[in-house]
Amino acid sequence: xxxxxxxxxxxxxxxxxxxxxxxxxxxxxxxxxxxxxxxxxxxxxxxxxxxxxxxxxxxxxxxxxxxxxxxxxxxxxxxxxxxxxxxxxxxxxxxxxxxxxxxxxxxxxxxxxxxxxxxxxxxxxxxxxxxxxxxxxxxxxxxxx
Length: 145
Description:
alpha/beta, Cytidine Deaminase, domain 2, seven-stranded mixed β-barrel, globular
C-alpha cells in the first residue's frame, strides 16, 4: 500500500510533534482511501489525554473528540484514515503499545522527534489478522494536493 501526504500536511504533523515535545503529540488524519492507496488531505492535531507523567511515551485520544472528527470528515467528503503521533527521542517504529492498540483500517504515521526536532516519519498498517504492523510506502507530495 502507498500512503500519500502533501508537504504542508506533513509540515503540520512535524510541527505538532515538535510543539508537543518532550511529550508525544497525536491527532487524526483525514483523507481518501481507494484500493491500495490512501491520501491525506488534512490533519486534526488533538490533545494528549494520557496521564501527564506518562505522556513522554504514551498518548490517548478522547473518544468524543474522535467522533467529532469523524463527523467533520464526513461533512468535508473525507474519512478518518489514520492516526499520527510522535516518538520523542525514539525511532519512528511502532512500540509494543502501538501494536497493542492498532486497528487494521487505519494508517499510523509515526514521527521521531529528536531533541525537539522532527527527524523521520514512517507509515505503518496493522495486518487484518492483528499479527503485526507492516510498513507502507510513504510518499510526500510537493504543494498542497
